[in-house]
Amino acid sequence: MQRRRIIYAPDARYDRVRLAQWLTRNASSAVARRFDRRIQDAVKKLEYASERGTVRQEAIGLRVIGILPTVSIAFSVSEDAVTVHRVLYNGQNWIPHD
Q: Is residue 61 part of a domain?
């Protein structure tokens, strides 16, 4: 089984920051850190199990999977990497930028 490196696109990093800020305001910084760690751990599993999920845009190979009950990620897979394009919370709607 091939191992691929994980790359977070700028939008995905920003999604994680926004989610952490929201959780910090509405729960606590400890909750935000734990939730972000769970996201990172789930995404890390894509190193080996990369080619899964629902293909949303065949032309660019965009896939979407649920990684936690309230979090989905949009990602694509290349020969040596998985690029996480977005981290979507609670059914957030997302259309990729051109």
A: yes
The total of structural domains in the chain comes to 1
CA atoms within 13 A on the CB side of 84: 28
pTM score, two decimals?
Answer: 0.84
Element housing 35 (H / E):
helix 29-44
Is 96 domain-assigned? no
CATH code for position 79: 3.30.2310.20
Which pLDDT tens digit goes with each residue over 26-50?
999 999 999 999 999 999 999 998 8
The residue range of the domain holding 11 is: 5-89
Question: What letter would DSSP give residue 47?
Answer: G
* pLDDT tens digits, one per residue of 44-75: 999 998 877 767 666 677 898 988 889 999 99
Tell me which long-range contacts 56-65 makes (C-beta under 8 A, separation of at least 24).
Answer: 57/96, 60/96, 62/96, 64/88
